[in-house]
Amino acid sequence: MTIDVFAADEQQAHPMDVARWAELARRVLEARGIKGETEVSLLFVDEDAIAALNEKFLGKSGPTDVLSFPIEDEPGPAGRSPDLGGSGPGTSPEEGVLSLLGDVVICPTVASRNAVAHEVSLDDEVALLVVHGLLHLLGLDHENEAEAERMEAIEQELLTRFYRVSHRA
Length: 169
Description:
By secondary structure, the protein is of the alpha/beta class. The chain has helices at residues 18-31, 47-58, 108-118, 122-137, 145-167; strands at residues 3-9, 38-44, 66-70, 99-106.
């Protein structure tokens, strides 16, 4: 049972340590109770790419810092069925099913501007965006004040556990 985070840096303005951010993502997903064969993508893109995604999928113009695209399909059947490549006898229905959570897309250039405005480092801002994007994949949102407060509290707890502790000098 593994959580695979596929991370790619597809921009050049602010080189990203994709292994570092993939590890943070994996730890956050484990802490949120994700189990089994799970995949998520973490992409770092330039302003043009994120602006195009923002326009196409949210109808908003211009670049943003983070977008999350959950996979909403139901998982396929588990177990042994002809031509389905099942997991074999003795497994629970959850085992052997690959869960594709979705994609988190981050723009380091926008994150860099936000970091200045928030008076934090770029790494601090990217860590927040990784966690924020993952929580969206897991169904959390911030459409109203109560949801926003709950989501922010979870973000801070996860950042304290998995980023700030390992990031202290």
